[in-house]
Amino acid sequence: MSEGGPEAARRLTEAFGEPYREVVRSAVDAQQRNVQLAQGWVESVTGVLESQTEANRALTRAMKSHTNAVEEAIKRQERTSRALAESLEAYRDVIERNTALQEKSANLVQGFFGDVTSELREGMQGSQEVARSLMEGSERQMEAFQAMLGEAMNSYANLMNAPFDHYRKNLEAFSKQGQ
Description:
This protein is mostly helical. The protein has one domain (51-178). It has helices at 4-112, 117-178. The two termini are 67 Å apart.
């Protein structure tokens, strides 16, 4: 029986060997396909994430550059505003001094020349009207500057919202790719 035993084992191995080998081959092939699919998916997702990261870096650099430019523009606007305020103050000072000087002159002339006083008063009123129109022009300049500053601040707010809009669009695009 010692010879019959190995022969029977060999025949049993041959009988079950080929189907088992086929099952193992199929399982190995399926496993390899699954690994390739997983690798492809990981590479695709990694590529998308790297692309998004680079886009975010570029956006951050652009925002930083624009922020610096806006800050410099605001500083220039502040300097302009100070200069306009100083100019307006100087106009007021000149007008006040001119008015005081004209009043003194009118009083002096009235003391010497009673009839000429009315003409000097009319001249003084004309000068005051000119001074008032100068002040009104300066006030309109200040209002225009304030309107310009308001528009600049609105532009700055829109700029600060741009990254969030970009991020939202990227999320929408990514979710569409996933679908």
